[in-house]
Design a protein that fits this description.
It is built from 16 helices and 20 strands. By secondary structure, it is α/β, with parallel strands linked by helices. Helix 1 packs parallel to helix 8, helix 4 (61-72) crosses helix 5 (76-96) and helix 5 (76-96) packs parallel to helix 6 (135-147). The protein folds into two domains: 2-230 and 432-455, Aldehyde Dehydrogenase, Chain A, domain 1 (3-Layer(aba) Sandwich), CATH 3.40.605; 234-414, Aldehyde Dehydrogenase, Chain A, domain 2, CATH 3.40.309. The structure holds adenosine-5'-diphosphate. Residues 127-129, 154, 156-157, 187-188, 191, 207-208, 211, 214 line the site of adenosine-5'-diphosphate. The active site is at 229. GO terms for molecular function: succinate-semialdehyde dehydrogenase (NAD+) activity. Residues 2-451 form the Aldehyde dehydrogenase domain.
Length: 458
């Protein structure tokens, strides 16, 4: 068995099985065996089952939220927010299942018809991270099942309990064995088994760029379709024509979500020189109002980081910035609560030469950079190997459009700190990956296009 610790105090929240190679192979076999029957169900039947899953989980949100607080450390308010977000995908794809339309194309030959249909790619596999233990599962499972695929998931070792609870509710909703399978154990072994199995037609991975590339390499022999949601290094740009209060609030909410452990977390805050001090002061006031605590209460708090490795990484990045001339305006150390709590930290006079500029922080740290002109800041925002999301605040319409056009990322969020919902395409470019999740684009990742020519009709 694998123990799942609570990041707040290290106590054991629960255990999951460490599946053997034999058990993982058997689960893959079941996922493949279930595909023909599941894919042949009427779209409406799959939709009704997904809707049932949505209803059952919706009736028990509180139990899911409390479990997520204990295994992930995020506060109850955030956990409940994640559940709304995650359930949104089940609802959306229960509906979308019925709308996987094809085309007819004007024929190129006399007495013929050209028909284009969309078919599920086949059995798929997914590997998920720990930062959204609920939403990561629902987003991948709902999309796959809606398209007519069956799916096997390996959740993160840190947060498998929420995932297994979702599986339990899925069974109660009538999602049978094989259609949705879950395995836990050695990630390296499981990764090898699913990537080398030719019957698995697609991998949907969310996690680090390093592991994403490894899985893509491992899958090359069996030529799988891939969706890769990898790391980010989001710029958050505040121009002097913006509403400073809104920008400060947007930044704090986006940054402190999940204690900064989010791939779309603002990672580089660029503030135009003329408003720099005023903006930093306001952000500091807002951050100081938010308590740092364990999260089993009804208010927003900054929780612990997920594990000791995460704490060391944040410490190292902040220490490096300080040693190279950054100003520590707030925090800059472990929080007095001890354990895995890191104090919310604001750094100013950060420069592009520091390690923190090119590294995904994954902690409650606001590195603030100064800039002078739009052209300069766009070039600096793009000066990263990642391209997941960029945020900017401005009230200049022309500038807003220029940012949307010139920033190299899969998502550009203007005058808001909030990105995701089920109806929009989430995903990145460059080393942040490829493929989209959510919206009607999301289901395209799970289907293949079939062209049928019907000749000899005259
Ligand atoms: P993080 O650093 O955020 O945990 P990872 O990319 O290491 O990001 O982990 C994301 C997911 O990938 C987790 O479920 C983890 O178990 C899995 N994982 C890590 N290494 C491998 C590997 N070599 N093969 C397959 N899966 C892996």
């Amino acid at each position: 068995m694998i123990d799942v610790p609570n990041p707040v105090d290290g106590s054991v929240v629960g255990q999951v099985e460490h599946h053997s190679e034999f058990e993982v192979r058997a689960a893959i076999d079941r996922t493949c065996a279930a595909f023909p029957a599941w894919s042949r169900l009427l779209a409406k039947q799959r939709s009704d089952i997904l809707r049932k899953w949505f209803d059952l989980v919706s009736a028990d949100k509180r139990a899911f939220a409390e479990l997520m607080c204990r295994e992930n450390g995020k506060c109850l308010t955030e956990a409940l927010g994640e559940i709304e977000y995650g359930l949104g995908f089940v609802e959306w794809y229960a509906e979308e299942a019925k709308r996987v339309y094809g085309d007819t194309i004007p024929t190129h030959a006399q007495g013929a018809a050209v028909i284009v249909t969309k078919e599920p790619v086949g059995p798929v596999a997914s590997i998920t991270p720990w930062n959204f233990p609920f939403m990561m599962i629902t987003r991948k499972v709902a999309t796959a099942l809606a398209a007519g695929c069956t799916i096997i998931i390996k959740p993160a070792e840190e947060t498998p309990l929420t995932a297994y609870k979702l599986l339990e509710y899925a069974r109660r909703a009538g999602i049978p064995e094989g259609v949705f399978e879950m395995v836990t154990g050695d990630p390296v072994l499981i990764g090898k088994l699913i990537t080398s199995d030719a019957r698995i037609k697609k991998i949907s991975f969310t996690g680090s760029t390093v592991v994403g590339k490894l899985l893509a390499r491992q899958s090359s022999d069996t030529l799988k379709k891939m969706t890769m949601e990898l790391g980010g290094n989001a710029p958050f740009i505040v121009f002097d024509d913006s509403d400073i209060e809104q920008a400060a609030k947007g930044l704090v909410a986006a940054k402190l979500r999940n204690s900064g452990q989010v791939c779309i977390s603002p990672n580089r805050v660029y503030v135009q020189s003329s408003i720099h001090d005023r903006f930093v002061q306001r952000v500091k006031e807002l951050v100081e109002e938010i308590p740092v605590d364990q999260g089993l209460q009804e208010r927003f708090v900054v929780g612990p980081l997920i594990n000791a490795k995460a704490v060391s990484k944040v410490t190292e990045l902040v220490d490096d910035a300080r040693a190279n001339g950054a100003n520590v305006v707030l925090g800059g150390h472990l929080h007095a609560k001890g354990g895995l709590f890191y104090a919310p930290t604001i750094l100013t006079e950060v420069t592009d030469a520091m390690q923190i500029q090119s590294t995904e922080i994954f902690g409650p740290v606001f590195p603030v950079y100064r800039f002078e002109t739009e052209m300069e800041v766009i070039a600096r925002a793009n000066d990263t190997e990642y391209g997941l999301v960029a945020y900017a605040y401005t009230r200049d319409l022309g500038r807003a459009f220029r940012l949307s056009r010139n920033i190299e990322s899969g998502m550009v969020i203007l005058n808001s700190g909030s990105v995701g919902t089920a109806s929009v395409p989430f995903g990145g470019v460059k080393q942040s990956g490829y493929g989209r999740e959510g919206s009607y684009y999301g289901i395209e990742e799970y289907v293949q296009v079939k062209y049928t020519l019907m000749a000899g009709l005259d």
